[in-house]
Amino acid sequence: MNIYFDLEFTGLHQNTTPISIGLISDDNKSFYAEFTDYDVSQVDEWIQTNVIENLLMNDITEQSYSKKIINSNSNYIKGNSSFVKQKLEEWLSQFDKIEMWSDCLSYDWVLFSQIWGHAFNIPKNIYYIPFDICVLFKIKGIDPDISREDYVNVINKDAKHNSLFDAKVIKLCYEKLML
Prior knowledge:
The chain is of the alpha/beta class. About 30% of the residues lie in helices and about 20% in strands.
């Protein structure tokens, strides 16, 4: 099973912290979580405008919020890293074998692995080598810097930098590239 994922975080630097994570599977099951323990001192104007303001649960103040949306295969979580890890492990456990796909995944994979404290601790059903949609664009002879939304004809780009929206766009790109 392919799972397409994206993380939003507090900046492109070594000590960045995750703000949100979005995942969607080949069969359209999705998981979305917002971290409540990211380092707010690292949030600059760009992160505030493009990431924080695109979070889906800004109006929810509970520290441990979890909701499975009935009939949509979607899970929405808000809480600290430990809570997100627990709920993410539960969600991932429904799949036997997982290949993870992301876009420019250098930071995403490190932060994803850090959820479990170490890459060797990620759930055993996840293949330890992640895959990058950028490389697939290059292999297919397409400029890896292409607008993903334009490539898959996404009209409403307002949600860009929301991790679940971006994960869905990664999935659409993968599907189009593999035709």
